[in-house]
Write a structure and sequence with these properties.
By secondary structure, this protein is mostly helical. The protein is built from eleven helices and no strands.
């Protein structure tokens, strides 16, 4: 559609026809945001498109960037949510693509809060993830629902005692979802590692060891033997 045509030049290299990757993708997306603000200062949908592209680029590298860029991701998500809120105020229903963007955006400040590692930050994270779950549930975004439930379970495990069954089930669902999409993707390896930790905490060490052995071989092949995830 029109918005895909508008965004694609900032996503795909015209020479090699591959998507921009890693920090270069962040730089390109940042330029896209600046371009839209200059050329389309009153066009909220186009501003949302550019901010979402930047947010996606930041999410892809968020585990490898300094705190200042993590804060930038949080700010980008909150600005995006604010603009989508303005779009919701219009008479027409919010198109599906923007609801999907909204769900993803809620997850980013949730992840950032979760990484702070305190009980108070975990409680804040739950609020964001519950918003994500509500939005994804309303539009039937199964992947978003699974991710939100897994993150809620993880955050609550930081301040609620009791059984790990809910966290274990959430991590299993997320890992199986990732495997169905692409078993050799970095996201799948990360989800598998979280599932293995949940298995270990549930006293299912043999299953955890078997899964980690498999993940290690995949990570060496896909990410390389010296990658942070492989070492973990």
């Amino acid at each position: 559609d029109d918005m895909n045509e508008f965004s694609n030049p900032w996503i795909i290299c015209p020479n090699c026809h591959q998507e921009y990757q890693n920090y270069f993708a962040v730089d390109i997306a940042t330029e896209f945001v600046s371009f839209v603000r200059r050329q389309y200062p009153d066009n909220i949908p186009k501003q949302v498109e550019s901010l979402h592209l930047k947010l996606c680029a930041l999410i892809d590298v968020i585990d490898r960037v300094p705190p200042v860029q993590k804060r930038e991701a949080g700010v980008t998500a909150n600005v995006l949510l604010s603009l989508i809120g303005r779009m919701k105020g219009d008479a027409s229903p919010l198109p599906m693509r923007y609801s999907q963007m909204e769900g993803r955006a809620y997850g980013v400040p949730g992840r950032i809060a979760l990484e702070e590692g305190t009980e108070e930050s975990a409680r804040r994270a739950v609020i964001y993830f519950e918003h994500q779950l509500k939005v994804c549930g309303a539009i039937g975004d199964e992947e978003g629902i699974v991710i939100a439930k897994a993150n809620i379970a993880l955050a609550k495990s930081m301040y609620e005692g009791g059984s790990n069954d809910e966290l274990l089930k959430a991590n299993q669902d997320l890992y199986e979802l990732r495997v169905a999409e692409c078993e050799e993707h970095e996201y799948t390896i990360r989800a598998g590692r979280s599932y293995a930790i949940a298995l270990r905490n549930a006293n299912r060490g043999d299953e955890a060891r078997e899964l980690l052995t498999k993940l290690l071989a995949t990570s060496k092949q896909v990410l390389g033997p010296h990658h942070k995830i492989t070492k973990k």
